[in-house]
């Protein structure tokens, strides 16, 4: 166990979870990896279609996600971060409002539920 924790700590943070929520944490982790990968692919594809070179598109999308995650890991709540990034009339605010008005949240929740159900099955 010590060796595994040492190895995984080299690339990220290791969490010890109780058996009570191990399946949920596993499904959540798998879903986050899938969501991030799909988001980067989607953002990159659109950016390339708009003329940004692939390497730049991947780097920009990845760096934006990394920055957001860094702020959350430093203690900024997702709600506070969303609020601070979405000045009235800003591009970020329009993107956030569009997300709320779409079926994206329902789709994300159902996909996460499916991932958790799979780990419990």
From TrEMBL:
InterPro entries: 6-PGluconate_DH-like_C_sf, P5CR_dimer. Residues 21-120 form the Pyrroline-5-carboxylate reductase dimerisation domain. It comes from the Eukaryota. The keyword Oxidoreductase applies. Pfam families: P5CR_dimer. The keyword Acetylation does not apply. Keywords: Oxidoreductase. This is Unnamed protein product.
């Amino acid at each position: 166990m010590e060796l595994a924790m040492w190895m995984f700590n080299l690339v990220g943070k290791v969490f010890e979870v109780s058996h009570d929520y191990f399946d949920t944490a596993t499904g959540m982790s798998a879903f986050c990896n899938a969501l991030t990968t799909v988001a980067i692919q989607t953002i990159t594809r659109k950016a390339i279609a708009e003329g940004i070179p692939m390497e730049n598109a991947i780097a920009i999308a990845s760096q934006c996600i990394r920055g957001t995650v860094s702020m959350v890991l430093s203690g900024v709540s997702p709600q506070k971060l969303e609020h601070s990034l979405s000045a009235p009339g800003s591009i970020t605010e329009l993107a956030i409002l569009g997300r709320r008005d779409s079926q994206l949240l329902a789709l994300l929740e159902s996909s996460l539920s499916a991932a958790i159900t799979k780990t419990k099955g």
